[in-house]
Automatic annotation (TrEMBL):
It comes from the Bacteria. Residues 4-235 form the ABC transporter domain. The keyword Transport applies. One of its GO terms (molecular function) is ATP hydrolysis activity. It holds the Pfam family ABC_tran. The keyword DNA repair does not apply. PROSITE patterns: ABC_TRANSPORTER_1, ABC_TRANSPORTER_2. Belongs to the ABC transporter superfamily. Macrolide exporter (TC 3.A.1.122) family. Keywords: ATP-binding, Nucleotide-binding, Transport. This is Macrolide ABC transporter ATP-binding protein. One of its GO terms (cellular component) is plasma membrane.
Amino acid sequence: MSAIICKDLCKTFRQGEEVITGLDKVSLSIDAGEFVCLSGPSGSGKTTLLNAMGGLDRPDSGEITVGEQRLDTLGKGELADIRLNSIGFVFQAYNLIPVLSARENVEFIMQVQGVPAAQRRLLADQVLAEVGLAGMEGRLPSELSGGQQQRVAVARAIASKPRLVLADEPTANLDTHSAAQLMDLFVALNQERGVTFVISTHDTRVMGYARRLVRLQDGRLISDEPQQPHTMAQG
């Protein structure tokens, strides 16, 4: 079963008088349960593609299907529902709410979903333990390291049990040790929960974790190859 199907996606941006190509007829199909990295230099289109897959940005033309939903035909409210209930996001800058504890940050999306308070607290604590943060539920983001903040962001992304997690340069602000721990966590969640992961990165060490590597350049898909994954520790 396909998790994502992209057909002939095109996207341009205006920068003053210049027109920048974000995506140039990109077609890509990702099956449920895959672990895929989008790679390429800055400006290659990987973040633009990830945002289109998540319904955060609408392509100028082409089709995007997530599960059985055509995203490119949906209105803003319908897209918000898809993002809320079916897709988890992990961002480079963590995007945690600074005045909320780790538990409250994880609970936030479940609260919007209407999950009762007692149930979401229990689920938040369970998923924080799953990502290695048991005992830190009451800490504010400012009281956590960068790696711990990113783990809270991952816990928030998976708390609602999404079918798909999109991660945009998730290790960019982490040291090597924290980055390796995060990627090991992604692999475990992929293998144990069957969550589909699509990760954008220009870090060759992160690319090594993927079972499939998609390379972009100047908005075009230039290669799409399976590979044997390895960890940072393995080099």
